[in-house]
From TrEMBL:
It comes from Erinaceus europaeus (Western European hedgehog). InterPro entries: AP3B1/2_C (IPR056314), AP3B_C (IPR029390), AP_beta (IPR026739), ARM-like (IPR011989), ARM-type_fold (IPR016024), Clathrin/coatomer_adapt-like_N (IPR002553), Clathrin_app_Ig-like_sf (IPR013041). SUPFAM superfamilies: ARM repeat (SSF48371), Clathrin adaptor appendage domain (SSF49348). It is found in: Cytoplasmic vesicle membrane; Golgi apparatus. This is AP-3 complex subunit beta-2 isoform X5. It is a peripheral membrane protein. The gene is AP3B2. Keywords: Cytoplasmic vesicle, Golgi apparatus, Membrane, Protein transport, Transport. It holds the Pfam family AP3B1_C. The lineage of its organism: Eukaryota, Metazoa, Chordata, Craniata, Vertebrata. Residues 389-535 form the AP-3 complex subunit beta C-terminal domain. Residues 221-392 are annotated as: Disordered. SMART domains: AP3B1_C. It comes from the Eukaryota. Residues 285-302 have a biased composition (Low complexity). PANTHER family: ADAPTOR COMPLEX SUBUNIT BETA FAMILY MEMBER.
């Protein structure tokens, strides 16, 4: 989120590429991938650094210059637009067909450009006039005429100077004969240096290091000792306030407002707080006493009613404390219910029979007098409730038996049945049948770890891409999030915090999971709109007590949905996506990957594409569309005898096509 930090990081990558020659290509490829970022400032800074790196080896990177030329239609940062125009003008001989068209587009928007961009448009026009005057003479005159009447006097002066320099006049200027040497002179590659160079003698992070001058009170770093100092100097005394654990803090918060020594308590307070803080064994003992001694329960209940009548005139703070106690009693009820569920079925049946036959009356009295009565096994729930509080307990148990609606993944609306697959077999032109697994394949990524159980304090989270249309928004990628509680305490309130996402990326949160019992696992479905980029979606996974920072990064094959078309339609659309929209890779298929089913399975596993029927047995065609923009993605694989093959990917999204070709080649070569 810190734009200055992002810019400094990209500049550091450029300095690494400048100073370390063996990683130059790696850094350059990484910067090119950043051009697909949705954040315009990241793209702009990458363009500026790429421009400086290309000056070292411009002849080897003609494709990158073509890709940068295409960005002039979208990028709006003036410094980035000016850097692209300078690159095209300086190395126009490497892009002889693209450079005049870029000048035509810039001439159309010249009056609306920033001053730094206008100056580079004039330079581009002058260089193209000197190298390709046949195509750009009229465009150059038009640009110079617009600049002649510009409001900025620097641009007017540059236009007059350029016109006299490149256009020979009757008087015969001496400089016009050397115009090519002036404009097209070889320029040395810039040296990328850190702004903190020659400051290593100051301590990093100090004021002196920032100002590059010794500040008042600055202490020099001591030299390395010849002998190691006593290790006891590293022993730091831990403050007292850090020794208290978070569990002890929670226990202190749960203490009742009134202590036991006061003698008086708000209505229902003492019983509820004791039941919330006591151990399960003591709870079970108190339950047995209350169920067996009905007469003592009657007398105690009568005394409780008298105390309630006496305490009704007390202050409102007392009542607030009593309400807190009742909330804790409900939590204690849930813990008792979970404990009863874990008991064996045989014990529950015998206890239910005995309880219904011998102590039915005492149970009805105890349940009407106290809200702390534990809920029994499932067989007890079938009995009609004797009183209103018992009805409330049964409704709570019924709610516990149902899983949240987010746990059930939505069924795929476009799933292909076996009968439909059999019908499709007769429509293909090949002898090989279309299997259902090839029509709706699973993701190649499988389950990926989102949060480790150690970092999550017992909460383990994995995610997977289901390749099913997200019901809320078809432009979103459906992500299944799998939760597992390996701790000894229930985890409550699982939800996604307010995410701070980059521009274009959005998240459809899953419904909050109220509670996840120890040892329990559940699955939720969320949607992420990655905006046709492989940039990670960062967000917070929150519980009632903790927040965990996690991120989901999709493979490029999960950013698209399959499209089914005929072979003629495929060829027609492929003919429209040529030139810069076509990526070609050559590979050798291993022996295990030369059958029809294996090739189709590996391609559709790496990318969510639909297979296109083909007449030839050694040709494979696949088609899909990106989820956000709906851009067509076409993939063709032509196998040759001996295992040699050629892969062609066509798409308007050049970066997606490049990454997809790389992933498919890797999948086929395994």
């Amino acid at each position: 989120m810190d734009k200055d930090f992002v810019a400094a990081t990209i500049q550091a990558i450029g300095r690494c590429a400048t100073n370390i020659g063996r990683v130059r290509d790696t850094c350059l490829n990484g910067l090119v991938q950043l051009l697909s970022n949705r954040d315009e400032l990241v793209v702009a800074e990458s363009v500026v650094v790429i421009k400086k790196l290309l000056q070292m080896q411009p002849a080897q990177h003609g494709e990158i210059i073509k890709h940068l030329a295409k960005l002039t239609d979208n990028i709006q940062v003036p410094m980035a637009r000016a850097s692209i125009l300078w690159l095209i003008g300086e190395y126009c001989e490497h892009v002889p067909k693209i450079a005049p068209d870029v000048l035509r587009k810039m001439a159309r928007s010249f009056t609306a450009e920033e001053d730094i961009v206008k100056l580079q448009v004039i330079n581009l026009a002058a260089k193209l006039y000197l190298t390709n005057s046949k195509q750009t003479k009229l465009l150059t005159q038009y640009v110079l005429s617009l600049a002649k009447y510009d409001q900025n006097y620097d641009i007017r002066d540059r236009a007059r100077f350029t016109r006299q320099l490149i256009v020979p006049s009757e008087q015969g200027g001496a400089l016009s004969r050397h115009a090519k040497k002036v404009f097209l002179a070889p320029k040395p590659a810039p040296v990328l240096e850190s702004s903190f160079k020659d400051r290593d003698h100051f301590q990093l992070g100090s004021l002196s290091h920032l100002l590059n001058a010794k500040a008042t009170g600055y202490q020099e770093l001591p030299d390395w000792p010849e002998e190691a100092p006593d290790p006891s100097v590293r022993n730091v005394e831990v403050p007292e306030w850090t020794k208290c654990s978070s569990r002890e803090k929670r226990k202190e918060k749960e203490k009742p407002f009134y202590s036991d020594s006061d003698g008086e308590s708000a209505p229902g307070e003492s019983g509820t707080t004791e039941s919330a803080d006591s151990e399960p064994e003591s709870e079970s003992q108190s339950d047995s006493k209350s169920s067996s001694e009905s007469s003592s329960g009657d007398s105690s209940s009568q005394s409780d009613e008298d105390e309630e009548q006496e305490d009704r005139g007390r202050s409102s703070e007392r009542w607030g404390t009593a309400e807190q106690g009742s909330e804790r009693s409900e939590e204690a009820e849930k813990r008792k219910v979970e404990k009863r569920k874990k008991e064996p079925a045989g014990q529950g049946g015998s206890s239910s029979e005995g309880g219904s036959g011998s102590s039915g009356g005492s149970e009805s009295q105890a349940s009407s007098e106290s809200d702390d009565e534990p809920a029994g096994p499932a067989s007890w729930r079938k009995m009609p409730p004797p009183s209103a509080p018992k009805t409330k307990e049964v409704s709570l148990l019924d709610l516990e038996d149902f899983t949240p609606p987010s746990v059930q993944p939505a069924p795929p609306p476009t799933a292909v049945s076996s009968s439909l697959a059999a019908d499709l077999e007769g429509l293909t032109l090949t002898d090989s049948p279309l299997l259902p697994s090839l029509l709706s394949p699973a993701s190649a990524a499988g389950r990926q770890e989102l949060l480790h159980r150690v970092a999550g304090e017992g909460l383990a989270v994995d995610y997977s891409f289901s390749r099913q249309p997200f019901p809320g928004d078809p432009r979103m990628v459906s992500v299944h999030v799998h939760f597992s509680n390996s701790s000894e305490t229930p985890i409550k309130g699982l939800h996604i915090g307010t995410p701070k996402l980059p521009a274009g990326i959005s998240i459809q949160e899953f419904p909050e999971i109220e509670s996840l019992a120890p040892g329990e696992t559940t699955t939720a479905v969320m949607g992420v709109n990655f905006c046709d980029s492989t940039q990670a979606a960062n967000f917070q996974l929150c519980t009632q007590t903790r927040q965990f920072y996690v991120s989901i990064q999709p493979p490029v094959g999960e950013l698209m949905a399959p499209v089914f078309m005929s072979e003629n339609e495929f060829k027609k659309e492929q003919s429209k996506l040529t030139g810069m929209n076509e990526i070609t890779e050559k590979l050798v298929l291993p022996d295990a990957c030369r059958s029809d089913h294996v090739v189709a399975h590996r391609v559709t596993t790496a990318a969510n594409l639909g297979r296109v029927p083909c007449g030839a047995s050694d040709e494979y065609r696949f088609a899909g569309r990106t989820l956000t923009s709906g851009s067509l993605v076409l993939l063709a694989l032509d196998a040759q005898p001996g295992g040699a093959a050629q892969l062609v990917v066509n798409s308007e999204k050049m970066v997606i096509a490049t990454l997809l070709a790389k992933d498919v080649v890797q999948a086929l070569a395994q």
